[in-house]
Amino acid sequence: MAVFTEVSFEEAQKLMRRLRLGELQDLRGIEGGIENTNYFASAEQDGVLNHYVLTLFERLSAQQLPFYLYLMKHLAQAGIPVPDPQGDPNGDVLHTVCGKPAAVVNRLAGKSQLAPEPVHCAALGDMLARMHLAGRDYDREQPNLRGLPWWNETVPVVLPHLAAEQADLLRAELAFQNHTASGSDYAALPRGPVHADLFRDNAMFEGERLTGFFDFYFAGVDTWLFDVAVCLNDWCIDWPTGRHDDAKARALVQAYEAVRPFTAAERALFPALLRAGALRFWISRLWDFHLPREASMLKPHDPTHFERVLRDRVQRPWRP
Ligand SMILES: Nc1ncnc2c1ncn2[C@@H]1O[C@H](COP(=O)(O)OP(=O)(O)O)[C@@H](O)[C@H]1O
Ligand SMILES: N[C@@H](CCOP(=O)(O)O)C(=O)O
C-alpha cells in the first residue's frame, strides 16, 4: 500500500470544488501501487455520487506530467477505455495538492484479473493494438523514462547489492540490450506512445470484458513491441516459476495481430524484446528494493521474480 503524502479531507474537498466535481463525500488511501500517492475520492454532484482517483505524483515533475495526462485524454477521446483527467475551469488537467503535482481521473469499473485465462489475454491483446494505433496521431513527445539510458544509469547502482552470479547475468543482459538497440532491425521497429507498465494490476475487467487500462505514468514513446513484451512477461507466464505460458501468449498475440500484424523486424526481435521487458522490471525492482523510499503504506515487489523471467527468456527464446 502506498501513501507517501497524507491529504486531508479539506484539501481534497478544495480541489474537487475547484474542478466543479461536487461535494466530496469520501476519501480513502488506496492499497497497491508503489510510485505515487493515490486516493479514491467520491463526490456528489446533482444528487449523483461519482467516483474518482486522486493521484499525487511523487517522482514525476510538472514538466513530465502533461505528456501522460494529455495522452490519457487523447486515448479516451479515441474510444480507448482509459481514465480521463478532469480539467479545472481553464481546462488545465495538472493541479497542485500539498505542494505536489496532482491529477483527478475517473475511477474505472471492475477489478484486476490477477489470474487471467487466455480469454482475458486476448481482450488485452486486442485493446493493446487498438491503443497503439490510437496513439499514432498524439502530438506530444517524451521518451520512455525507464528505457535503455535509465538501465545504463541504474545497473551500476544496484550491482553492489547482488551476488556474483546475478551481477554477471545483469551485466551480460545489459550489454546484449545495448547491442540490440544499435542494430538495423531495432531501428526499423514501429514506435509510438506505449503504456510500458501494462501489468495485470493496471487493467480492469468485469467478467471477461476489459473495462480499461490505467496507471499511464511510465508511458513514453518507445517501440510497440516493448509494450507487447511487457504484457507477455506479466500476463502470459507461470507466476511461481516465471516460465512462458504458450496458450496465454498465443491468445494475446493472435488478438493483437488481428488488429495490427507484426512487421518482419518485430518478428526478428521478439525474443530480444521479451528479454528487454524482463530486464527493465528486474532493474527497477532491484532499485526499489535496495534503495527504498519512505512511505506510510509501501510493499516493494520481489526482484527475484524478474530474474527468473529473464533467465527463462534467455534459455527458451520465443516468437509467435
Ligand atoms: N483510474 C482508476 N480506476 C480504478 N482504480 C484505480 C484507478 N487508478 C488507480 N486505481 C487503483 O489504485 C491502485 C494503485 O494505483 P496505481 O496507479 O497502480 O499506483 P502507482 O502509480 O503508485 O503504481 C490500483 O491498483 C487500483 O486499484
Ligand atoms: N509494475 C511494476 C511496478 C510499477 O508499479 P505499478 O503499481 O505502478 O504498476 C512491477 O511490477 O515491478
From TrEMBL:
Pathway: Amino-acid biosynthesis; L-threonine biosynthesis; L-threonine from L-aspartate: step 4/5. It catalyses: L-homoserine + ATP = O-phospho-L-homoserine + ADP + H(+). Pfam families: APH. Signal peptide: none annotated. InterPro entries: Aminoglycoside_PTrfase (IPR002575), Homoserine_kinase_II (IPR005280), Kinase-like_dom_sf (IPR011009), Pseudomonas-type_ThrB (IPR050249). The keyword Manganese does not apply. The keyword Flavoprotein does not apply. This is Homoserine kinase. It comes from Curvibacter cyanobacteriorum. The lineage of its organism: Bacteria, Pseudomonadati, Pseudomonadota, Betaproteobacteria, Burkholderiales. The gene is thrB.
